[in-house]
Design a protein that fits this description.
By secondary structure, the chain is of the alpha+beta class. The chain has 2 domains: 2-201 and 293-302, Alpha-Beta Complex (Cathepsin B, Chain A); 206-287, no CATH class. 28% of the residues lie in helices and 28% in strands. The protein contains 9 helices and 13 strands. The strands form 2 sheets. Strands 1, 2, 3, 4, 5, 6, 7 and 13 form an 8-stranded antiparallel sheet that branches. Strands 8, 9, 10, 11 and 12 form a 5-stranded antiparallel sheet that branches. A hairpin with a 4-residue loop joins β5 and β6 (175-181). α6 crosses α7. The protein is globular. The two termini are 24 Å apart. The relative contact order is 0.16.
Length: 303
């Protein structure tokens, strides 16, 4: 796995010989590389949105707050449900997660876009699938187990989606696939992607809770909602607080309307303990068991 900047990908497109690349094809959205800037547990939705960008499908933003962005305002599209809201209204999602290839296909159909499910059973069949799709101008929303960076996890990892949007073959016959997730670009071998998909574990029934966290930036509070497993909330928030202390950031918790309590103070003082963090949850979602082994292994969505 190789992590590349957008500029590094453009260099490979423009000067393949310099990188000993024999063949390269990369899809773009409006002349630019597609970008997947996922926020929260919405990876499948953002992968689908990035695929829509490539196809020029101006449907709806992935989340409602993006209606306020310059892009969506400039397109003069009547404000309506975001892709995430549509997924929740139609019963495909509780908080933004997408549980399988057929759910993603059905979500796209509810937005007026036809997509296809494709199946694979080996690194070679995955390579052929991706290459064929990209050669005809289609990208691939791909489910797999990932680590915290979005790279495929070879054994255990969280269920995740990325978008596959390009490929290359070098002078030695090595095959690579370009993906985007978390606002970054990865170059991956077909084997890595295949192994990541095959490493998907079923998601056991559990409760997730939502908080609103805030950072003080230039004397202003900036915050957003975040979902996390209830049983892991104390540890996750403890890690957040340690990072805030390390960088001297004032960190707080509250409601959608604003911060109400501090989680740390750079100079010390009375703060909320992570042990009490569940007192500040603003919502909860009870997940039933999700069989990724049935709903996502060996499958992806061609857009």
């Amino acid at each position: 796995m190789l992590l590349l900047s957008g500029n590094a990908i453009y260099e490979r497109i423009q000067n393949p010989g310099q990188f000993k690349i024999k063949e390269i094809k990369v899809l773009r959205a409006g002349g630019k590389l597609p970008r997947n800037d996922q926020v929260g547990g919405t990876c499948g939705i953002y992968a689908l949105d990035a695929a829509f960008q490539i196809k020029g499908k101006i449907v709806a933003p992935p989340r409602k707050k993006e209606w306020r962005s310059g892009y969506w305002q400039s397109e003069s599209i009547p404000t309506g449900p975001s892709i995430r809201r549509k997924a929740k209204e139609d019963g495909f999602s509780l908080i933004g997660e997408i549980s399988g290839a057929r759910d993603l296909m059905a979500l796209a159909a509810s937005l007026g876009v036809k997509v296809d499910i494709a199946e694979f059973n080996s690194p070679d069949s995955l390579w052929t699938l991706v290459r064929t799709a990209i050669d005809r101008g289609s990208s691939v929303a791909f489910p797999y187990a990932s680590d915290d960076t979005g790279a495929p996890a070879i054994s255990k990892g969280a269920a995740h989606w990325c978008l596959l949007f390009g490929y290359s073959v070098d002078a030695f016959g090595n095959r690579s696939i370009f993906s985007t997730t978390y606002g970054k670009y990865h170059v991956l071998r077909p084997f890595e992607l295949f192994k990541g998909n095959q490493s998907l574990q079923d998601f056991e029934s559990q409760t997730w809770v939502k908080f609103y966290f805030f950072e003080s930036v230039d004397s202003e509070w900036r915050g957003q909602g975040e979902w996390m497993p209830e049983v892991e909330a104390e540890k996750i928030v403890s890690d957040y607080v340690e990072q805030a202390k390390k960088f001297g950031i004032l960190y707080g918790v509250g409601k959608k309307s604003g911060v109400t309590d501090l989680l740390n103070k750079p100079r010390g003082g009375s703060v909320v303990s992570p042990k009490k963090i569940l007192d500040f949850k603003t919502d909860a979602a009870n997940f039933a068991r999700i069989q990724y082994s049935v709903r996502a292994k060996g499958q992806c969505v061609v857009v």
